[in-house]
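pinging the channel bc i need a second pair of eyes. not urgent but kinda urgent?? the chain im working w is below, pasted from the shared doc
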Amino acid sequence: MAVLWNPAQTGDPLGWRQTQAAARTLGITLQSLEVKDPKDFPIAFSAMTRKRPDALVTLVSQLTTAYRPIIVEFATKHRLPTMFALTADVEAGGLMSYSASLTDTFRRAAGQVVRILRGARPGDLPIEQPAKFELVVNLKTAKALGVKIPPSVLIQASKVIE
């Protein structure tokens, strides 16, 4: 499985280590593809073309979000199933995403802002973990890739794009 990530992006090194740990547990071999700059995309795509991974996971960063259309186009052309972290990536043609609900996260952040505006000290507020997660599946992309999504996955999906 190829993993497209930006080591210069805050949080991506942690995401890479967590991906490595999960891959070890599942017996999956990873291909690390670092993209720190737009010029790194052709290099990463060339490496994927040579090694032919079974799937592509993209860790979210400003760079991978900005180049989403190019990533999706490459993956579709090479019939490469993709896993993203944002619903927008799947709406743009990626196969699937799983992440904390941005709507719920922003709603909870707004509640924290209200508490601060009412006089709470930011340092006194608890650190919150995401409470709601979303699985989004693009069946149109699955069909184009020749991938069958099991009913057990579709039942759990928060959103299915047809």
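so Residues 109 and 142 are 34 Å apart (CA to CA). and The chain has one domain: 2-101+132-161. — does that match what u expected or am i reading it wrong
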